[in-house]
């Protein structure tokens, strides 16, 4: 059976490859900003938003997927009620990190599995991360060293690299932090005979 990842995220693809999965990538083209605005107006939670975006991704890919299994995923960063998007410039990344500095934020990751046009399974997981109260000098040095890679992350950091130095405390699943609740996904793929048991 064919497996499709309905996401353009290099991090999610890398996680699946490292876990030994064979799949194709068919990114779903959706306007996430507009959808998030609509969901905020409806007072949706970050969990609701992550799940809705993941489901929309599989729905967009499903019509051309036949009986293939489709994975959709999305992640939300929320801090004190504010939803964050990926920064669109290094200046925006700096502002992001300054606003998160010294605070605890949540990364909410949702994953959805669909087949034949229907969602057959969904999972949401949340991690809580506390940034230390680093100096502006440290922040500038971090951004200079990390470079534009920070623009590919909603939090402007990669925990698996230099970004780990931003934190004083982390509680939650590592894969959830990277943007995909991987272990439950592997379980449901085994149940559906996509992976060997």
Describe this structure in words.
Helix content is 37%, strand content 25%. The two termini are 15 Å apart. The model has no long low-confidence stretch (mean pLDDT 95). The protein is globular and about 55 Å long. The protein has helices at 10-18, 32-41, 46-61, 90-100, 136-146, 174-178, 182-191; strands at residues 3-5, 24-25, 69-79, 82-84, 104-115, 118-131, 167-171. Helix 4 crosses helix 5. It has seven helices and seven strands; from the N terminus they run βαβααββαββαβαα. It has 197 residues and is of the alpha/beta class. The relative contact order is 0.17. Strands 1, 2, 3, 4, 5, 6 and 7 form a seven-stranded mixed beta sheet that branches. The chain has a single domain (3-191), classed as Maf protein, CATH 3.90.950.10.
Using the alpha-carbon principal axes, give the shape.
globular
Distance between the termini: 15 Å
Mean pLDDT: 95
Overall CATH architecture: Alpha-Beta Complex
In terms of topology, how is this protein built?
Elements: E1 3-5, H1 10-18, E2 24-25, H2 32-41, H3 46-61, E3 69-79, E4 82-84, H4 90-100, E5 104-115, E6 118-131, H5 136-146, E7 167-171, H6 174-178, H7 182-191
Helix pairs in contact: 4-5
What would the keywords be for this entry?
7 strands; Maf protein; about 35% helix; 7 helices; 7-stranded mixed β-sheet
Q: What's the gist of this structure?
A:
The protein contains seven helices and seven strands.
């Amino acid at each position: 059976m064919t497996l499709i990842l309905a996401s353009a995220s290099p991090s999610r693809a890398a996680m699946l490859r490292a876990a030994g999965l064979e799949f194709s990538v068919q990114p779903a083209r959706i306007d996430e900003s507009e959808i998030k605005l609509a969901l905020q107006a409806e007072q949706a939670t970050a969990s609701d938003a992550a799940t809705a975006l993941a489901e929309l991704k599989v729905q967009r890919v499903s019509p051309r997927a036949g009986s293939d299994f489709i994975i959709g995923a999305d992640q939300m960063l929320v801090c004190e009620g504010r939803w964050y998007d990926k920064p669109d410039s290094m200046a925006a990344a700096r502002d992001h990190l300054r606003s998160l500095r010294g605070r605890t934020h949540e990364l909410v990751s949702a994953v959805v599995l669909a087949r034949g046009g229907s969602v057959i399974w969904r999972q949401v997981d949340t991690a809580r991360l506390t940034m230390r109260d680093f100096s502006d000098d440290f922040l500038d040095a971090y951004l200079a060293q990390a470079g534009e890679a920070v623009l590919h992350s909603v939090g402007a950091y990669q925990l698996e690299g230099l970004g780990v130095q931003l934190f004083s405390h982390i509680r939650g699943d590592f894969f959830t932090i990277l943007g995909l609740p991987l272990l439950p996904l592997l379980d449901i793929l085994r149940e559906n005979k996509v992976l060997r048991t």
